[in-house]
Amino acid sequence: MEMSLKQSTLVLLTVAIAVMSAQVTVTLDEEQKRVDVPHGSSLTLYCSLEGQGRFRIAWFFKCCGNKTIDINATVFNKSTKTSNETSSKTKQNLKEDLPKHTLSSVTYNDSGWYFCNVTIEIPYLKHYESKGAEVIVVHVSPTNFFEEWWLWILVGGSVLVLIVLIIICVLMRRRQHIRELQTPIYGNMRPSPRPGAPADKLKTEQRRSEERYRWSRERRAGSLSRKTAVSDIDPDNSRSGTP
């Protein structure tokens, strides 16, 4: 039972973490966009600008005013063979292969415009810059949170109840199996006498002794009544004592 409680707690914590940890993705391309990100969630930026050979990707952040901050820069080497392999992948897999930059636990200070800049260095120098994506960090109230994640909460609760029921069924079957092993049934054994047999025998003996006592009293009373009758018939003999 203790093991089942531990497993149920582990499942509950897993579901809670999956529900609470929201992750938002934004693809920076040639289209301008606006994205609302819940406070405290994780924000992943993908750069979909194409680059061949040796190129460098820089991530920029523009907050209030015209001040632009360089937040990250990475150098990549992408060959023609790699480009041919990625052409056969699905859209989701292609997105996973894109260069990315992740901001964990975003705050209100992370609200602003984000850009990515691609600089091709080999074989010749070339620059590409994406359109900006405006990220606004918003506060999520408990009511809005429940309305957004109620389906995940329902699915997690249903899975938890199902797992608990399966564990209970397995424990009950195992307990029944152990009980059957501890108390085997033998078909060649005669049944034991009834537990009430000695008590019935004792009652029979008491009844017989009572009958014998009653019979002796009746016999004694009968002999006394006969003597009284004889004395009434011959009073002289009874006084003299002569039979």
TrEMBL record:
Presence of the UniProt keyword S-adenosyl-L-methionine in the record: no
UniProt domain Ig-like: residue ranges: 22-119
Biased composition (Basic and acidic residues): 200-221
Membrane-crossing residue ranges in chain numbering: 149-172
GO CC annotation terms, alphabetical: B cell receptor complex; external side of plasma membrane
GO terms of biological process kind: B cell differentiation; B cell receptor signaling pathway
UniProt keywords, alphabetically: Immunoglobulin domain, Membrane, Signal, Transmembrane, Transmembrane helix
Family matches, as InterPro entries: Ig-like_dom, Ig-like_dom_sf, Ig-like_fold, Ig_sub, Ig_V-set
Region listing for Disordered, in residue ranges: 185-243
Cleaved signal peptide residues: 1-22
Name by which UniProt lists this protein: Uncharacterized protein LOC121900196
Lineage, opening ranks: Eukaryota, Metazoa, Chordata, Craniata, Vertebrata
